[in-house]
């Protein structure tokens, strides 16, 4: 495969499919179309990471002709494929993969944790060549399935290959970096001096969202000479919009006027509460401005869709070996902020560009963003 031009987050809308396009528990696309030439879209840095971690190589020739019989299946976590966030963005990548290659792509939706292994087994029985698990909660199930089914390729988003299985690729993102950028925006945009965070299920992966966001607030405070305060709460759920709304309403009652979520479908409730109260919201994973165009200041982007497209093709075409763990961040243009900035420009002129400058500092290593509570304390002491 010939690797393409450098990918930039500034060029991507990241809106993903609308919920009404995704019907039923099992959805399949069989495009049966002539394969279009693939243009790599994850950035030169990401390509180096893929080649280094996976041990694969490119001979510079054309990729093999697509086999229309190739099946790639995605298993959602309990947030579901219509979460307006992480799972939905992953499915958008799968849909594009099918369009680009002519492969048969599908998803199976998990309603509860107990569904993970059952759904993986369904995908194996259906002849999937590659099975994606979406979300850290599926880590144990995917690792076990990879060992049990050595002839099937597996990949998982936001978790790792824990046991060295030769057919499993772990794909993680530096979500603390995009969270830092939106934390910086939140602190600069707040008039009350109070900002909030609504999290889904507390975990090491999700802590990176919270601590990166908090660090961005502290960075803005230092830069601007302000004292914006932070409050956060976990909903213990990725699919409970009512709970997200309730948590947000309490934060707003307590004075918070900018709220950020990393909570999947639960966060949709947070955005609704912000809209009703006339305060600002910050989305996550995909550009969520379409949910509330006058309310959403920006969104922290994780280009899961592009990772799914690129890594799937590299695995199926044999250019990336399994048995690796890949980490993608701002340096690979795989995390950042949404390109939509109408609300920012109208109310906070120059702030969007200032946030992009912060991201450039992260890329250059001038800012090393904390991803845990301990790292945050060290970071705050260094300011």
Keywords, please?
single chain, alpha/beta, Rossmann fold, 2 domains, six-stranded mixed beta sheet, 12 helices, 40% helix, disordered N terminus
Short description, anyone?
40% of the residues lie in helices and 18% in strands.
Explain what you see.
With 383 residues, the chain is of the alpha/beta class. It folds into two domains: 9-173 and 303-332, 3-Layer(aba) Sandwich (Rossmann fold), CATH 3.40.50.2300; 176-301 and 349-382, 3-Layer(aba) Sandwich (Rossmann fold). Helices cover 40% and strands 18% of the residues. It is built from twelve helices and 13 strands. A seven-stranded mixed beta sheet has the order 1-3-2-4-5-6-12, sandwiched between helices. A six-stranded mixed beta sheet has the order 8-7-9-10-11-13, with helices on both faces. Helix 4 (139-148) links the parallel strand 4 (130-134) and strand 5.
Write the layout of secondary structure elements.
Blueprint: E1 26-30, H1 44-54, E2 71-75, H2 86-101, E3 104-108, H3 115-125, E4 130-134, H4 139-148, E5 153-157, E6 168-173, H5 175-189, E7 194-199, H6 204-224, E8 229-234, H7 241-253, E9 258-262, H8 265-277, E10 280-285, E11 296-302, H9 304-316, E12 324-328, E13 335-337, H10 342-347, H11 351-364, H12 373-382
Parallel strand pairs: 2-3, 2-4, 4-5, 5-6, 6-12, 7-8, 7-9, 9-10, 10-11
Antiparallel strand pairs: 1-3, 11-13
Largest sheet: 7 strands, mixed
CATH class of the largest domain: Alpha Beta
Beta-strand content bin: 15-25%
For the termini, the CA-CA separation is 45 Å
Tell me the count of domains: 2
Over the alpha carbons, how many angstroms does the gyration radius reach? 20 Å
* DSSP summary, beta strand count: 13
Enumerate how many helices there are, as a single number: 12
Order of helices and strands: EHEHEHEHEEHEHEHEHEEHEEHHH
Q: What would you call the structural class?
A: alpha/beta
Q: What is the CATH superfamily label of the largest domain?
A: Response regulator
Tell me roughly what share of residues is in helical segments: 25-40%
